[in-house]
Amino acid sequence: MQRTIIPGWLDFPDIDKPYIEQIYERREPKVSPKWIHSRVQIRIGAALDRWAGDRGDAGTELRCYLVAGEMKPSSLVPDVAYYSVERLPRELPEDERERPRIAPDIAVEVFSPGDRRRLLAQKIELYLRHGSTVVIVVDPQQRTIAFHRRNGTTTIPARGPVTVDPYDLVLDFDEIFRGF
Fold first, then answer.
1. Contact predicate 6/101, CB 8 Å
2. Domain holding 27: CATH number?
3. What are phi and psi for residue 126, nearest 5 degrees?
């Protein structure tokens, strides 16, 4: 894997919130999550982490740096991310694991009332353009799940167990939304 140097202007200080995402040349603050957003995020993250096992790693709010060719650099902070060991090997130097230069295999965004749909659409496009297999957008208010892939989008009600193709990952939305 070729080593990509991250330019200083993309080196975000992730100690202060709200986190800032860079979408091409624009810097956008991430919407501060409320209680339901936070609970949905942690439950999906826990389910992805259990499922990942030896095949990869899952985490929340891990910044990824998206720099390719002539395109303007971007930096996103998905609510939940899964990286396979094939795409992000555990043997990589620490900086390359801590600051991945690729989009996650699975990116999850939990839609909040303060989110802007146009901005979300740009983030989905960036994830897919930079290697994500699927971008999952969960809307807790509408109780829907949208699966975005390079060949299109499928939106379904967020109820019961849902298989995330092409993986054998099953997310149980009755459990994810338990209590609210």
1. yes
2. 3.90.1570.10
3. -65, -45
Over residues 4-53, the pLDDT tens digits come to 555 565 566 666 667 788 888 788 888 777 899 999 999 999 999 999 99
Looking at the domain assignment, is residue 6 inside a domain?
Answer: no
- Is 136:106 a contact under the CB 8 Å cutoff? yes
The reported pTM is 0.90
- Beta carbons within 8 Å of 68's beta carbon, 6+ residues apart: 129, 130
Would you say 132 and 167 are in contact if contact means Cβ atoms under 8 Å apart?
A: no
| 9 in a structural domain | no
Q: How far apart are CA 107 and CA 41, in angstroms?
A: 12
For residue 20, what are the β-bridge partners? 29
Give domain status of residue 1, yes or no.
no
Contact 175, 160 (CB under 8 A): no
Question: How does pLDDT run across 98-111, given as a tens digit for each residue?
Answer: 889 899 999 999 99
Task: Please choose, from the candidates 105, 104, 72, 102, the residue with its C-alpha nearest in 3D space to the C-alpha of residue 2.
Answer: 102
Tokens 């860079």 belong to 22
Which among 176, 143, 178, 147 is positioned nearest to 164, based on CA atoms? 147
Least Cα distance to 149 among 134, 164, 137, 138 occurs for 134
